[in-house]
Amino acid sequence: MKKVQTTCPYCGTGCNINLFVENGRIVKAEPTKNHPVNDGELCLKGWYGWEYVHSPDRLKKPLIRKKNGKFSKDGELVESTWEEALELITSKIKEIKEKYGADALMGFSSARCTNEDNYVFQKFFRVAIGTNNIDHCARL
After folding, report:
1. What are the contacts of 31-36 at 24+ separation with CB within 8 A?
2. What is the pTM of this model?
3. How many other CB atoms sit within 10 Å of the CB of residue 96?
4. pLDDT exceeding 70 applies to what percent of the chain?
5. What are the backbone dihedrals phi and psi of residue 103, each rounded to the nearest 5 degrees, phi first?
6. Where are the domains of the chain?
7. Sequence-ordered list of residues with C-beta below 8 angstroms from that of 66, at least 6 positions apart, any chain
8. What is the CATH T-level fold of the domain 2-54, as seen in this structure?
9. Closest residue by Cα to residue 124 from 134, 111, 113
10. Can you tell me the distance from the alpha carbon of 71 to that of 1, in angstroms, rounded to the nearest whole number?
């Protein structure tokens, strides 16, 4: 069994965790002893929250609602390429900003991102989009 030391993905705290991998699959997790952030402790999510990694229901490609081959809120979800998904997102952000102004947009970040990722996210919304309408779910 291979031991992989990494940072727990559940919040921005930065707890260190050891994942034990067998046949390419995570089989258990333990806190890293004597780590300066979590000193050998983990919350329940850190201990047991890794099972989603191997879930057959996990999305692996972007999905876009389409009707007759074009984006439609009434359409069916179909797999798309990352390029198509990102182009659609970019065009919709530009369209909303031009029509209603930057404050018509908001961003909601995740506690499962690193602090650095959340920093870049809020910076993007404040500088590139031009709004302070940002929030997160990191209520620790």
Report:
1. 32/5
2. 0.71
3. 14
4. 98
5. -75, 0
6. 2-54, 63-100, 101-134
7. 72, 75, 76, 78
8. N-terminal domain of TfIIb (2.20.25)
9. 134
10. 46
